[in-house]
Amino acid sequence: EEDLSFYNLNSEDTKIASDHLPRVMDIAEDPEEPTWVWSDPLSPQDDDIMGNAHLDITGIIASSSNITATWYANVSIRDDYGTDLLPDHDIGVRAQIDQHLGDGDGWLSIPEIADFVSLVETARNLTDSEDSGCCVIDYLSLHSDKGGGITVIPPINGSVDSNGSWGWIETTALDGTTDGRSRDTPPCDPAGRLGVPLQRHARYHRG
């Protein structure tokens, strides 16, 4: 393994958001009283956004060759920072969820949170590496036939005035090709559409 590229898109050392990945959702047998169970909530944080990302590329690095890659991103965001997935970014994600996905009563309910989880899962289930904020290889996107796996750790229920953290973890298997130029390694450029500053690593495994 040869570590050839390192991307640091944050002005400070970036922290790891969470290392407990699985989200479990259970729906009660009584359809009138659904319940959802997620992973433990994230710890409060001082930085607005924390996280890291890795791109591992495997394949013969040669002219016009096929390559495969695995993309991993781990993101944690303060509740009061807001999200671009909903209007009124400046009011914070808890109030955004309550007003735009809920009833605006000042209380973040479990069903409102579940709707937000679905929104994030849909928004991050992308098949194009540039659209996902990952990268481009030889100035071309990599692609995933089935999209990625997304685990959302949502804000906890309660008052919209509370402030904690929420985030997500995503992994995607990608495929692509290098172009016809002759050189040892393909240009690998980070793409900025993830919308958050992350510490990024790119590793090339020679086939």
List keywords for this structure.
single chain; 207 residues; six-stranded mixed sheet; 2 helices; 11% helix
Question: How would you sum up the major sheet?
Answer: 6 strands, mixed
Main sheet: which strands, in order across?
A: 1-10-2-3-8-6
**Which value, in Å, is the CA radius of gyration?**
19 Å
Mean pLDDT: 77
How many β-strand runs?
10
For the record, the count of structural domains works out to 1
Order of helices and strands: EEEHEHEEEEEE
The N- to C-terminal Cα distance equals: 10 Å
Oligomer: single chain
Stretches where pLDDT is under 50 for at least 5 consecutive residues are 1-30
Quickly count the helices.
Answer: 2
DSSP strand content: 25-35%
How are the elements arranged and paired?
Layout: E1 2-8, E2 49-59, E3 66-78, H1 93-100, E4 107-108, H2 110-124, E5 135-137, E6 149-153, E7 158-159, E8 165-177, E9 188-190, E10 199-206
Parallel strand pairs: 2-10
Antiparallel strand pairs: 1-10, 2-3, 3-8, 4-7, 5-9, 6-8
